[in-house]
TrEMBL record, chains A, B:
Organism for this UniProt entry: Kribbella karoonensis
Superkingdom to which the source organism belongs: Bacteria
Hydrolase recorded as keyword: no
Gene3D superfamilies recorded: Homeodomain-like, Tetracycline Repressor, domain 2
UniProt keyword terms in alphabetical order: DNA-binding, Transcription, Transcription regulation
Lineage start: Bacteria, Bacillati, Actinomycetota, Actinomycetes, Propionibacteriales
Stated name of the protein: HTH tetR-type domain-containing protein
PANTHER family per the UniProt record, alphabetical: HTH-TYPE TRANSCRIPTIONAL REGULATOR RUTR (PTHR30055), TETR-FAMILY TRANSCRIPTIONAL REGULATOR (PTHR30055:SF148)
Length: 184, 184
């Protein structure tokens, strides 16, 4: 039942945004009775939090392309695609995080988990000798992904896949070229 | 009158956030009658939009430190300070941009203007021979500022001034080292 309900939450969120998300619409779309939804998830905010927690339970891991640059390009393409999808569940969840503290906390936990999992690509690059040991994986991932999120979410301007690729390359080259002591 | 009203909007926004911003509170704080506020600004959203438009009218320009790296560090320090101020007007305005389309559009125009003005530091670096001609100033500024915004606004995690400095250095070095054809 949980997966059907969460699929309905995702679809409603994508179509109508957080403001248009209602327990009744989720009930109709999922075929689960509204009384059951209220009992288990309590509110629209509870549904959103559970959607993000389910995301943290999944088997997602970053692609292993064999190079730091390739791995970062794959990450940035995933981010760029998620943020430019029409409709975009990711954009709807981000908007929701500015509405309720519960959504903000759930999104912080979700991303914390995703960035931790993505750090494996930095460890692989260190093992291959592409990066100096001691590189701060999170700061490297911020260098690659931060410009994509900033442009598409906060500045609300376009960013092509090619530009997202370039930001991945900048991050790979900057961190590969630096001595560890010079890095954030 | 406008500057007194907007100073009151800024103070109320910083203290109570967009959800706590009311015409009545702005009237009390500014000493301007609520009827006047309603006539000229129509709504809370109208006050916020005017605050951002006033920001686009000001004389702000980026510091001229004599080097690309120094200029970018100054920009990133300003961003980091604005986002970590307690209370932060910038964070409140960003949150408001996810509440009303008018606020989102006003913030997009405000940042568009700020990034355009900041591009002068890239032109200066090209003139000094620090950067190849044809560099995309906006992509360079995104490389520096994007990680700071992403970490402090969307990921809701700390970023020190030293880390913000490092992201400025990464941007300066990456764009100075590249041939123009390799850049986003």
């Amino acid at each position: 039942m949980r997966s059907e309900v969460l699929a309905a939450v995702e679809a409603e969120l994508a179509e109508h945004g957080y403001d248009g998300l209602t327990i009744d619409a989720v009930a109709v779309r999922s075929g689960v009775h509204r009384t059951t939804l209220y009992r288990r998830w309590k509110s629209v905010s509870g549904l959103l939090v559970d959607l993000l927690e389910a995301g943290a339970d999944d088997a997602w891991e970053p692609a292993d392309t064999g190079s730091l640059e390739g791995d970062l390009i794959a990450v940035n393409r995933e981010v760029q695609a998620a943020l430019t999808a029409r409709p975009s569940v990711t954009q709807a969840v981000i908007a929701a995080s500015f509405r309720t503290p519960e959504a903000a906390e759930a999104l912080t936990r979700f991303w914390d988990d995703r960035y931790r999992r993505t750090a494996v690509l930095v460890a692989r690059a260190v093992d291959r000798g592409e990066l100096p040991a001691g590189v701060d994986a999170h700061q490297l991932l911020l260098t690659a992904t931060g410009p994509v999120y900033h442009q598409l979410v906060l500045l609300r301007q376009p960013m092509s896949r090619a530009q997202a690729d370039h930001h991945a390359r900048i991050a790979a080259k900057a961190f590969a070229a630096a001595r560890a002591a010079d890095l954030p």
